[in-house]
Amino acid sequence: MRLTADGNIKPCLYWSDEFNVRKYIGDDRALAELFFRALDVKPESHEMAKALMNEQQSHTPTVRRMSQIGG
Q1: What is the dihedral of CA 57, 60, 65, 69, to 10 degrees?
Q2: CA 42, 66, 59: angle at the middle one, nearest 5?
Q3: Cα distance between residue 20 and residue 59, in whole Å
Q4: 4-36: per-residue pLDDT in tens?
Q5: Is the dihedral of CA 52, 14, 47, 60 positive or negative?
Q6: Pair 57, 47: CB distance under 8 Å
Q7: pLDDT, position 71
Q8: Contact at 8 Å (CB) between 63 and 4?
Q9: In the predicted model, what is the mean pLDDT of residues 27-53?
Q10: Residue 46: is its pLDDT beyond 80?
Q11: d(CA 9, CA 42)
């Protein structure tokens, strides 16, 4: 998982899923719940091999570059 510079939790750098943490700052319980929600959607694998074989992936790959994410 990664916390991006613009305030989003990315469960996986490869996928587009993101959870904005800014509105939960100051509410420790809600912030912890958000982190656990992000963990719940973290895929077991990146499925990059499926992309190379033009097969269906379980999530949508990100269009953001690593410099935008902080990777």
Answers
A1: -120
A2: 30
A3: 18
A4: 888 999 988 878 889 999 999 999 999 999 999
A5: negative
A6: yes
A7: 60
A8: no
A9: 86
A10: no
A11: 11
Pinpoint the alpha helices (H) of 1-71: 28-41, 48-52, 66-69
Averaged pLDDT for residues 57-65:
76
Residues 6+ apart with CB under 8 A from 32: none
Q: What is the DSSP letter of 61?
A: B
Instruction: Output the pTM of the full model.
Output: 0.71
What is the percent of the chain where pLDDT is above 70? 94
Residue 28, token pair as written in the block: 């420790």
User: Which residues 6+ apart lie within 8 Å of 41 measured at CB?
Assistant: 11, 17
Q: Is the Cβ–Cβ distance between 42 and 54 less than 8 Å?
A: no
